[in-house]
Each structure stands twice: as structure tokens, then as C-alpha cells.
Amino acid sequence: MIRYVAQRVLLTIPVFLSVLTIVFIVVRVLPGDPATAALGDYASKEAVDALRERLRLNDPLPVQYLRFLADLLRGDLGTSMINSAPIGDQIAHNLPYTLELTLAALLVGVTLGIPVGVYMATRHNELPDYIGRVGSLVGLSVPAFYLGILLILLVGVQLKWLPAIGGGDLTDAGDSLTHLILPALTLGLVMTASVARLARSAMLNVLTQDYVRTARAKGIRERSVISRHALRSALIPIVALTGIWGVALIGDSVTTELVFSRPGLGKLMVGAMLQRDYTTLQSTMVIYALFVVGINLVTDLAYGFVDPRVRTKG
Amino acid sequence: MKVRLAPMLALSMATLLVIGACTSAAPTNTGPQTGRTGGILRFGQSAADVGTLDPHFASGTQDRSLIDMVFNALIRFKPGDGTQFEPDLAASLPEPKSEGAKQAWTFTLRKGVMCQPTDGVPAYELTSDDVVYSLQKSADKNRSAYAGEYSGMTFEAIDPSTVKVTLDSPLSKALLYPKLANYSGGYIVCRKAAEKLGADGLKTHPVGTGPFTFKRYSPKEKVELVANEAYFRGKPQLDGVEFLYMPDLTSRELGLLGGQLDVANGTADIAWVEKMERNADAKVDVFGVGEVVSIHFNSRIPPLDKLPVRQAIAYALDRAEFQSLTGARVSEQVFSPVPAQFMPGGLTQQETAAKGLDYKSDRDKAKKLLADAGLANGFTLNMVTSELPSYRVVYESMQAQLAKVGIKIDLKVVDHTSMHSTIRLDTNPIVVYVAFRPNADVYLSQFFHSDAIVVTGKKPNTNFSHYASIDSLIDQARSEPDTAKQTALWKDAQTKILQDMAAYPVMFTNLVYARRKGVDYGHELKSVLALYPGIDETTRLMKK
Which of A16, A274, A284, B529 could be stapled to B48 by a disulfide with Cβ–Cβ 3.0 to 4.6 Å? Predict the structure, then answer.
């Protein structure tokens, strides 16, 4: 097992390095000059040239690339190219909002999606199943940002039950929760559709298994057959996919954060892109990449832990 | 088994919503109607983040508006009306005195103006030392983006409450006052705070003498300001301002309608204005100063080097068609590069019509001029436009209008900063430019003085037309102390520009801001140079 873990961790290094290289290149092929963007439309050519020099944008790309790697190795995420704010502080401020949103959405998706899927499976080819299938298809088809706007209009603007925008104060649990509900529902309801379909399909497979038939033949109550026998087996693929959904949700949170004007890594990244703030954009993308690579590593290790065949092959 | 989950799901959803509704919902900020109202005004601005809050570098609307709440200047534009001046940190508006070939302006400072406290620097009374330090910073190209505005000026502290500004070349009040007013380099930074924070620190931590004091900056989210209790005009009505960075218009709109915002930057589109006005809780303000849209013709690129061709293009264009892009209420046609609506020196429609220089749309005349120039079959021009709607729609409208007289424009859409780089490399035969400048001298110097010709000028700036026929008029007007004579010279310069059709003035688009009906800015809105409604010590949040 130790050899397997070491292999997986070592394999992560070239993957992460490749991602960093791609991030570095992608940021630099973006159109627009960051010095012009930083100084605005009114800046003279002299001022723009001076800023380019100060930011060392005139250095050859390999030099900039090595400096980027060296800074990262030192744990230095740098400062904003636009307003000199430390990027580490910016990420520290925004990251909790994204994590909070992602976890809440995951919670909504799982706690709503699994019961719905199970219910659909137990009412296979009956009206609730048809409604659930159509509903989940609609859920998968509706973009999160559109659902978000609908929720804001209904709950935030018409009913005024919840704040339409913002992230609230993280140190105030009530304020934070009220600002979290609508964005979490937005992301979570879309995820609910995926989870429900997967749960339904997994349950349908399990419900035809011999041991389920045996349990029923023994006279065990249907509720116990479903919850204690069938659902436990059906949960395995759902749990295995939770990590992947988590990664997907981090990505989907970008549009949700923008629609709700909610602080977070997504808003930070898009803002940096709008401002042509290379350094902030680059560092934010690195953090995203770190998350994705990290979650994949944990998933790999978890597979190896659960299934001995994986670590033997590895 | 029939597992009844539907009611459970409905219950859990309802529970989530009820928890939210009970916990806070839309917060109420307003205080009593009489006396000081208090409350935090939440302002949604169309930007992703702070650019820089060093007033001597700031150029974006999001920065200018915030800076306006924190800093003062020796002189200020009257709140809500950018055409009038009044004393700010100075006790009165000075008159000039001649000192040989030079000109001196002496400012007496108000007593009791306090620099706001910041980390490690307690509040202290502003003196001439701070003012001189700040103006010298504005004049230093390494510490200011507006240094050129202050060349030939020296600043001297006569005593703790007296500042003398000496000019190598005399200027009229119309030109000197804006340099020392609450706009760009005129803002006064407090010396001790500026030295303590350093150049980078000032970018996200403004410290001035204004009605609001910086409290906190949350990157890509907001800047929080609190009322400056020691403000020399009295404690502000508001407890503070939350300045939120919200690049998405829909979010700002929903935030305002949902009650999370009190003021939101809108868009210069009559459809949006009318939509917001249908809401009982919202009020929309449309006011100046407007950004002027002008079309500049590069006289170095054939066939635009021929005057009849440039005139043909001017006759082929129709201001009314451009104006229909935004709606008449949010824009107004202009007939000279300097907008006559906002500043002296501009030509009105009547004045240009009397001279036959209003270039009223006449496409038959345009075709005849092209035919006379040997271009009866038209021609093709290649150019780039910014992706920003304020530019792109103007270029596209121009493309459609010129197609009617046989001129084909191949348009390439690029990002905004790339467009700015490209047009400064002298590659666009026609440049659409959208800009506000504080006075006629700046407009004319930056767009029509030969020094400002792109690439080849002594100080390349935004003279895209390579125009060099009014240098003497611009220079003469700049040093003319008599306001009436100065205005006449500016008008002469613009008459010449129109005669030579170096640029076709189109329209200006106004600023559009929406607010909740309980917001009282404390002044009428006519024109604000900081490009926002103006939040000051008199601004109130009232109960509806």
C-alpha cells in the first residue's frame, strides 16, 4: 500500500507541472496588454512602457516561466499586477466562500438527489418515475446561471425572503446562511438531477438482485429491504462519484458566484481576467488546479484502499 | 413499498427558505427621517475590482467615484454640477497675480481640516506641507499619471496655512481651477499617510480628508467606508458606504430590486432606463458629464487624405441613427469635438449650422463628393473595434451607414486593450473614440495638437487624424487669461477642425445610475466629473 501511495503522489508531480505550464501559457496568450489594462484608457504610451518594464513583462517568456515556478516553490503567489494587493490574501478571503458554496451544493444535491432517485426506482415505470425522469432531464438541461436568476427573481426580488445577491459575513452564521441558500440551491438542484438519475439506475440494478428477492421472501418489511439492503449497495457508485461532482461543482460555482455577485474563487478569477491581471489570474488557476489534482489523488488513493486489485495493478 | 418522499422534499425546501427568511432577509438600513439618518449606503459599481485608489493614478470610473468620497482638493466642482467651482480645502477661490512673466495663485487653507487616521498615523490637521507634497507628487511622472498637467508649475508653502502656486506661463481660471480641483491630480493626499503606506499601499488604502474614511478592502468584493466624524463640513448623514464590485449588470439590477443595493451603475440604454422606472422602488438618474463619441479620420491613409472624401463620409453619416442606438434621453448630439453642453469652447448646433459645418446627413451629396473624387464605385477600409458595446455598436452603425454610399468597412472585433494598442500604432483609417476630458484645452491638445499625433508626435497621444493646423490657436487659447477671448479661440479652432473634417463629432452618452427611492444624494444631478452621482456628507437614506 505504501508503494502504491508513493507512486500516486509521485505521478501527481508531472501532472501538476504540466498543468502549471498550461496555465502559464494560457494566461499569456490572452489578448490585451496588462499594462494598458492596468493604467486605463487615459494612460500615455510612456506610462504604459514604464509599467511593462516594472512588471518585467518584457523579459523573455522562459525567464518569466522560471520565475513563476520559483515563486510558487517558495509559496509566493505574488501580488496583483493591477493594484498590488497580495494574491495570497485575495485567495484567503475568497476561498472559504467557494468551499462553503460547493459543500452546501453537494449536500443539497446528495440529500435531495438520493431520496428522489430511490423513490423513482421504487415506483419504476409509474407516474412518479415518469415525472422524476422528465424533471431530472429538465434539471440537467437548465443552466445553473438561468436557474439562479429565476430563484433571485422569485425569492429575492418578488418575495424578498432571502438576499438576492452577495455572500454575507462569514463570521455571522445567520447572515452567511441566508446568503448561501439561493446559490446553494441553484448549484445543488442542478446536481440533484444527476444524482437522482444515477441513484435510480443503481437502485434498479440492485432491486433485481437475488439477495433482495431473498430478503423480501423472508418477509422483511419493504422499507427495511430498500434502506438496509438495496440502498447500501446502490450507494457505492454514488459515493465514488461524489469526488468528481465536487470538482465539477467548483467549476460550476464560477457562474453562480457571478450571478449572485458572491465572493469566491470564480469571481476572483473572472475579475482578474476582466482586468487582465495576469498574476492574480495565474495564481487563482493554480489553486483551482491544485484542488482538482488533489481531489483526484484522494480519489485514487481511496480506490486503492477500497479495492485491493487497483493497488496490486498500480 | 410506497416511500412518500415528495412531502419530505417540499418540507426540507420550505424549511431552508423559512430559515433564511427568519434569519435576515433584506436588511433595513434607514434611520429616522428627521435629523441624521444614518445607515450604510450600498453602491453597486460596474467593475471587477479596485484599479488603484491612489488619486494621482486613478482613471477608471470605479476608482474615481470612490476616491471622490475620501479625498478633497483645494477647489471643488459644485456637487452635482461640474460647470461651477467653489472652495474646498481652500478658504476662497484665488485671483491670479502677475510676477514678471510668471503668474502666481495664493491659496489660504481652511482651519480645522483633519487628515484621516490610518495604521500608525493618528489624525492630524492638514497644513500647507501636505498640500505642497501632494501637488508635487501629482507633478512627478514617477508618482502620478497626470504629471504632464502640472509641468511648468511650482508649489510652495508660505506658512502652515498658505500655499503659493507659480506658473511659468499664465493660465485662465477656466484652465487652472480644474487642475487643482477634485479630479485626478488635484486631489490632496495626506503626506504622513502617503509616506507610511508607500506607493503600493496607497493603491488599496486611500487616506484623505473627505467625508468618508477607508475601513476595509475585500478583494474583488467591496471596499467599506465609514463616516468621517471629524469631517470639516460636519459629520456625514450616512454611517458609511459599502462600495461593491459587480461587473454583471443583471446582478446589480436584481440587487437593487431585491433591496441589497441602494445605488447601482446602470447602462446608457433607454430600454434599461424605462424597464427600471417601471419598478415602484427604483428611480433612474440620467446626467452628465457625458462621454463624447467622435469619429477621427486618419489623413495619412488614402483616400482619407482627400478632404472631399472625408466630407463625403461626414455627409453619409447620420447622428440621429447613432443616437437611436442608446435612445434620445440618454444621449445628445454634439456638433464639435468639445461638447458645448458641458464646457465653454464647444460649438452648438446653431453655431455650426450658421457656418454650414453641421454636416447634416445628405447621402446624395456624399455620393456626389465621392464621384467627384474619382471614387464613384466606393472603396474598402479595414479597421478594428473594441468588443465593448460602447465602441462596437458605433463602429457597426457606421459600417451600415457608409455601406449606403458604397464604402465598405471590414471590421475586426478585438478586446478593448488590444484596440487601444492598435489604434495608437496608427493602423485604423477611422478611429471611433469615446472619452470625456475636463476642458476644451485638454480635448484639443490631446486630439488635435501636432505634438499628440500617434506614433510620430513629440508626445504621442490621441491625435489619430494627424491634424496639425490649429497648434497656434490651441497654444494661444491656453495662455489667454481673458475667458471670453479664450472661448472664442477654442471655437475658432473647432471651426477649422470641422472645415478640414479632421473628426466628425457624433454624440455624448450620459451617465445612468439607478437608486432606491429612499436615497437622497443631497444635490441635484446635472454633471459630475467623478462619473457617479456624488456621495457626500449630505447624502441620506430615508424611509420611503
Answer: A274
Separation in Å, CA of A139 to nearest CA in chain B: 16
Q: The cell 480641483 sits on which residue?
A: B181
Q: Is the dihedral of CA B479, B481, B483, B488 positive or negative?
A: negative
> What residue segments make up the domains of chain A, in order of their start?
1-82+279-314, 93-274
What number is the average pLDDT over the span B51-57? Answer: 92
Q: What is the pLDDT of residue B316?
A: 97
Mean pLDDT (whole number) for B61-65: 89
User: Which residues in chain B have their CB less than 8 angstroms from residue A177's CB?
Assistant: 19-20, 23
Nearest alpha-carbon partner for B63 in B245, B287, B266, B262: B245
- Nearest residue of B to residue A113, measured between CA atoms: B9
Please tell me the predicted confidence (pLDDT) of residue A43: 63
The ipTM assigned to this model is: 0.80
What are φ and ψ of residue B297, in 5° steps?
Answer: -105, 125
Question: CATH top-level class for B288-509?
Answer: alpha beta
Other Cβ atoms within 10 Å of A225 Cβ, number: 21
Q: Within its chain, how far is the Cα of A109 from the centroid?
A: 13
Strand partners, A194: none
Asked if B386 and B358 touch (Cβ cutoff 8 Å), the reply is no
d(CA A176, CA B294): 48
Go through A77-109 and write b for each residue having 16 or more CB atoms within 10 A of its CB, e for each that does not.
Answer: bbbbbbbbbbbeebbebbbebbebbbebbbebb
Of A45, A221, A261, the CB nearest to B255: A261
Residue B240 confidence (pLDDT): 97
Q: What is the CATH number of domain A93-274?
A: 1.10.3720.10
Residue A152 has its nearest CB partner, among B13, B258, B420, at: B258
- Does position B24 have pLDDT exceeding 50, yes or no? no
In this complex, do A261 and B6 lie within 8 Å of one another by their Cβ atoms?
no
Give the mutation candidate from B59, B215, B221, B294 for the A interface (greatest A CB count, under 10 A). B221
Nearest partner of A94 among A292, A288, A249, judged by Cα: A288
Q: Which residue has the cell 471587477?
A: B48
CA angle B296–B300–B302, rounded 5-degree value: 95
Say yes or no to pLDDT of A210 above 80. yes
Give the fold, CATH level 3, of B40-262+518-541: D-Maltodextrin-Binding Protein; domain 2 (3.40.190)
Q: What DSSP string describes B447-471? A: HHSGGGBTTTSSS--SBTT---S-H
Whole-structure pTM value: 0.83
What is the residue extent of each domain of chain B? 40-262+518-541, 288-509
The DSSP H or E segment spanning B393 is helix B389-403
Lowest mean pLDDT among A176-180, A300-304, B480-484: A300-304
Q: Would you say how long chain B is, in residues?
A: 544
At A41 the pLDDT is: 63
Query: How many whole angstroms separate alpha carbon B119 and alpha carbon B240?
Result: 19
For chain B positions 38-77, those within 8 Å of chain A (CB to CB) are 44, 48-53, 57, 59-60
pLDDT of res. B284: 96
Give the model confidence (pLDDT) of A226-259 as tens digits.
888 888 888 878 877 777 787 788 878 888 999 9
Taking the C-alpha atoms of residue A34 and residue A43, their distance in angstroms, rounded to an integer, is 12
